[in-house]
């Protein structure tokens, strides 16, 4: 078997894996919507879609961008994961802070905020 055939098999495998992940994500959302949001809970669906997206990104990086196959690629892959980790920390931290701002407000602060937001 020649190197071209081996390379084509790797590309086809990666393409089919990517396609399968997209179909799974679509299926989860379709089932969720068509069942009036009763089959899967929203938190489960969020986690499932995020996991599928991360797997999809890893497949794309490894098979199509060829990251991680030599020493330079491994360094690039480590830098990408470090960057993704920092972005995740910033996003999750920001969401956590915003969710807890309302919880830590006093009733008077809430009332003042509500009054300042009214357009009447």
Which stretches of 5+ consecutive residues score pLDDT under 50? none
How many domains comprise the coordinates? 2
Tell how many strands the DSSP assignment holds: 0
Note the gap between the termini: 76 Å
Fraction of residues in helices? over 70%
What is the N-to-C succession of helices and strands? HHHH
What is the average of the pLDDT values? 86
Number of helices: 4
Core attributes:
120 residues, mainly alpha
Task: Give structural notes.
With 120 residues, the chain is an all-alpha fold. Helices cover 82% and strands 0% of the residues. It contains four helices and no strands. α1 (3-34) runs antiparallel to α2 (42-64). The protein is elongated.
Short description:
The protein has 120 residues and is mostly helical.
SSE diagram, text form:
Layout (H helix, E strand, L loop, with lengths): L2 H32 L7 H23 L6 H33 L3 H11 L3
